[in-house]
Amino acid sequence: MAKYIKIYPERCTGCRECEQVCSLFHWKVVNPYRAGIRIERKGVVEHFQYICNHGVNCNFECMEACKFGAIKKENGIVFIDHNTCTGCGACTRACPNQAVWLFDGKAYKCDLCMEDGNPKCVEVCSQKALEVVE
After folding, report:
1. 5 and 109 in contact (C-beta within 8 Å)?
2. What is the C-alpha separation between 113 and 101, in angstroms, rounded?
3. Over the stretch 89-114, which tens digit does the pLDDT of each residue have?
4. Is-contact 100 91, C-beta < 8 A?
5. Which CATH class is domain 4-133?
6. Minimal CA–CA distance to 46: which of 79, 18, 11, 92?
7. Using CA atoms in the order 94, 96, 102, 106, what is the torsion angle rounded to 10 degrees?
8. Within 13 Å and on the Cβ side, how many CA atoms surround 11?
């Protein structure tokens, strides 16, 4: 089974620290639009979390939709090659989990912090709303 981040929505307070640490780790800037996880406020205490599940409960629709080969899978981790991504948006429309989005002409999604293997969003979540599972 694939490694992915399990979300416990009832624990999420909507602090959005996960978005901040993700964009900071990957892009050296605090910008939630460049994060691989997205938190959307739906009410006073209700928040929706969007994050790629790396093939759990999906059929890699984003990879199939990408005609430029920018979405790749390596060691069970699905990631976007930003050098190849054209920002066409086919992956965003294909993802059944709304876990891929466009910002500034590029697609973004979770890559489980594959550079060091420890998802920063899970490390920073004080409410334990995120957990790495296999």
Report:
1. no
2. 17
3. 999 999 999 999 999 999 999 999 98
4. yes
5. alpha beta
6. 11
7. -60
8. 11
Phi, psi (rounded to 5 degrees) for 107: -90, 145
Model confidence pLDDT, tens digit, residues 9-51: 999 999 999 999 999 999 999 999 999 999 998 877 788 999 9
Residues present in the chain in total: 134
Q: Is 34 left (phi over 0), alpha (psi -120 to 50) or beta?
A: alpha
Best CA proximity match to 63, nearest among 83, 85, 36: 85
Apex 123 CA angle, 83 and 71, nearest 5: 25
Q: What percent of the chain has pLDDT over 70?
A: 99
| Domain map (residue ranges) of the chain | 4-133
CA 70 → CA 49, 55, 83, 100, 103, distances in Å?
Answer: 24, 17, 8, 13, 15
Q: Are strands 71-74 and 77-80 parallel, antiparallel or unpaired?
A: antiparallel
Is residue 56's pLDDT more than 60? Answer: yes
Question: What is the predicted pLDDT for the residue at 77?
Answer: 93
Mean pLDDT of 118-133: 96
